[in-house]
């Protein structure tokens, strides 16, 4: 996976979309994953505003701390979180938070998960082990999630092999995406919403049925 494509991808021009005064329903989704998996790129590709990115240039201070061996072209890294916004309706707004990937910033994750409806775990198949902590913490918090394999190059393994390697339960959606592509990233979020709805319907079938009635 070419991290240069991830970090230097040309993002769509920021839309000058002011937050509507009627928006009073804030929804939160977190994007997590390993170092250089493409989280910043995914948030930037779907955000309707110019995303807030807390990226800093990687320096020699990270030698021996971060492992850039699989992302040698990576020049900057997120040190707090990425932030984007999508307006769903006049009343509802979706906020996207991209978590930092390096292990030394994992202590921030638990706070980012607070209040989240769900999460996207973005994986780089060359470094699947970096996804285990994210999955473990989400399961610990009881936060629903989907797993998206980010493809900046042709995949070398089937999704079934990825599912087995990550030991994902059958109920966790697993899909392919290209974080540089707006439509592809949107499909990941749509799949997460479907997953959240299915879980809510399974846990409270009568409530969902009433809310869906005209």
Secondary structure class reads alpha/beta
Name of the top-level CATH class: Alpha Beta
Main beta sheet = 7 strands, mixed
Do you know the CATH topology?
Rossmann fold
- Estimate percent helicity: 25-40%
- Name the poorly predicted regions: 1-15, 61-66
Secondary structure: number of strands: 7
Major sheet: order of its strands?
2-3-4-1-5-6-7
Query: Do you know the CATH architecture?
Result: 3-Layer(aba) Sandwich
SSE series: HEHEEEHEHEHEHH
- Whole-number total of structural domains: 1
Brief descriptors of the model:
single chain; 214 residues; alpha/beta; Rossmann fold; seven-stranded mixed sheet; globular
Walk me through this protein's architecture.
With 214 residues, the protein is of the alpha/beta class. The chain has one domain (6-10, 22-207): P-loop containing nucleotide triphosphate hydrolases (Rossmann fold), CATH 3.40.50. It contains 7 helices and 7 strands; from the N terminus they run αβαβββαβαβαβαα. It has helices at 3-8, 39-46, 109-113, 132-141, 159-166, 182-203, 205-212; strands at residues 25-33, 52-57, 76-87, 92-98, 118-123, 145-150, 174-177. It has a 7-stranded mixed sheet with strand order 2-3-4-1-5-6-7, with helices on both faces. Helix 2 (39-46) packs across helix 6 (182-203) and helix 6 packs across helix 7. The longest helix has 22 residues, at 182-203. Mean pLDDT is 78; it is low at 1-15 and 61-66.
